[in-house]
User: Which sequence fits this backbone?
């Protein structure tokens, strides 16, 4: 009986949290932010296919 | 009752004053076919930073399509069956992709001051669509019907009551939240995004800051030899 109750309770953990001082962030949210920053930076530097860089 | 032949003839002045003629003239003036469905784009659009708006629209199309499948089959399907859980998960992940591409699109447009050249309303509709999308996603998280959604609703009710809208937007009322999520908010997001895209078509894609001088889309009488289009399209 306890196992059926404890199983769902074990699945509602809040995930991994990373903290530096007063700053606290969930690991999943940090990944999303880092991916967005990487996409933004790559979009600025990577050449677009099929185009020549203007002189 | 008979109709005279002269009554059937088109009345030039009368048709000019009708709302349909006014609307036709307005649409053709502000959004002619060559702007609505262009055959070329300025050369500066050939950059990855201009891809994310379209990426957000593609994600939104999958969000709506998967949402339609979920709504047609119902919670008993998407909470239990393997295929239902897969579609439910893909609905969530397409929302994640929608917000990620939309945020990168927002950063790109912010740093190139995309409200330049009469594009203020385009910028504002983008901001509104972002805000409405957040509310739509919020109602989606409430519909998980698990401990997470119960926790989110319990926290959110205090904020919504504090600003005085808890009676109309009651996060503890699952049926109401369901209708917000699958009817009202998708319609609102779709309408605002459609208006946003039409405004982009009307005013053209904003040029980067360094090539603002070549923003020929706003100048009907651009001098010869300054055509910066790709695809060979006449503008």
Assistant:
């Amino acid at each position: 009986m306890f196992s059926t109750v404890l199983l769902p309770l074990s699945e509602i953990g809040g995930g991994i949290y990373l903290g530096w001082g007063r700053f606290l962030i969930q690991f999943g949210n940090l990944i999303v932010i880092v991916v967005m920053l990487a996409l933004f930076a790559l979009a600025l530097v990577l050449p677009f296919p099929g185009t020549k860089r203007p002189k | 009752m008979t109709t005279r032949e002269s009554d059937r003839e088109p009345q030039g002045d009368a048709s000019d004053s009708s709302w349909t003629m006014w609307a036709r003239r307005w649409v053709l003036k502000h959004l002619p076919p060559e702007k609505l469905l262009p055959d070329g784009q300025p050369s500066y659009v050939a950059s990855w930073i201009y891809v994310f708006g379209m990426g957000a629209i593609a994600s939104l199309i999958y969000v709506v399509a998967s949402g339609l499948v979920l709504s047609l089959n119902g919670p008993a399907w998407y909470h239990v069956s393997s295929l239902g859980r897969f579609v439910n998960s893909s609905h969530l992940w397409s929302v994640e992709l929608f917000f990620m591409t939309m945020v990168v699109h927002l950063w790109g447009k912010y740093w190139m001051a995309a409200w330049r050249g009469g594009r203020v309303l385009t910028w504002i509709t983008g901001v509104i669509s972002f805000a409405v999308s957040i509310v739509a996603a919020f109602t989606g998280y409430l519909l998980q019907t698990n401990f997470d959604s119960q926790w989110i609703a319990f926290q959110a009710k205090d904020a919504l009551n504090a600003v005085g809208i808890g009676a109309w937007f009651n996060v503890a009322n699952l049926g109401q939240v369901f209708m917000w999520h699958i009817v009202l908010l998708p319609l609102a997001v779709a309408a605002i995004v459609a208006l946003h895209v039409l405004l982009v078509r009307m005013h053209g894609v904003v040029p980067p800051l360094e090539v603002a001088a070549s923003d020929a889309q706003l100048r009907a009488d651009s001098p010869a030899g300054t055509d910066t289009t790709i695809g060979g399209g006449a503008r």
